[in-house]
TrEMBL record:
Identification of the protein by name: Pyridoxamine 5'-phosphate oxidase family protein
The keyword Oxidoreductase is annotated on this UniProt entry: yes
Family matches, as InterPro entries: F420H2_bilvrd_red/Heme_oxyg, Pyridox_Oxase_N, Split_barrel_FMN-bd
Domain Pyridoxamine 5'-phosphate oxidase N-terminal, first and last residues per copy: 27-151
Upper classification of the organism: Bacteria, Bacillati, Actinomycetota, Actinomycetes, Pseudonocardiales
Organism: Pseudonocardia xinjiangensis
Coiled coil: none
Keyword annotations of the record: Oxidoreductase
Domain of life of the organism encoding this protein: Bacteria
Length: 171
């Protein structure tokens, strides 16, 4: 979890003159409530890869899981820098978020159990996972779990239009 609150800046070049920065607490609420996010990774040959997935916001970080042989897992192994985006497809209203960070694998069984419980609480029993072999077992192949602590987050408000940037210490 980030040790301190991020610095918050608004860029008036990309919004309405009366826009004010979106509070970080509002961004966190949106990250926690988002059902789907889009993960952007880079393949070893430099080509981008983007895929939708489920996320859990817990203790100041987004968490994802993916099969160990899936493209995104292979990309993270080669380059752990990722971007997660979520929001709405509406032109007016809502808040779109773009989270930059580094994916770090979670293998601690106690932490994995906390995350498995969080997945099921958020998404229901269809997303029940057993903790096994440093990951999640859910009826298919082993899923690796990653924590993505934000380094920089951009928030794009759409009523009024605004762009807020949150930078975390050490980023």
């Amino acid at each position: 979890m980030p040790s301190t609150e991020p610095t918050t800046q608004i860029d008036h070049r990309y919004g309405d003159a009366e826009a004010v920065p979106t509070p970080w607490s509002t961004a966190q609420e949106h990250l926690a409530a988002a059902e789907v996010a889009w993960l952007s990774t880079v393949r070893p040959d430099g080509r981008p890869h983007v895929t939708p997935l489920l996320t859990v916001w817990l203790d100041g970080a987004l968490h994802i899981c993916t099969g160990e042989v899936e493209q995104k897992a292979r990309n993270i192994a080669a380059n752990p820098h990722v971007v997660l985006t979520t929001g709405t497809n509406a032109l007016r209203g809502g808040l779109d978020l773009s989270v930059e960070g580094r994916a770090e694998r979670v293998t601690d069984p106690e932490r994995l159990q906390v995350l498995a419980d969080a997945w099921e609480k958020k998404y229901g029993s269809e997303w029940h996972f057993e903790v096994r072999d440093g990951g999640f077992e859910g009826g298919h192949a082993l899923a690796l779990v990653f924590r993505i602590e934000p380094t920089t987050v951009f928030g794009f408000g759409k009523g009024p239009y605004s762009q807020t940037r949150w930078c975390f210490p050490g980023s």
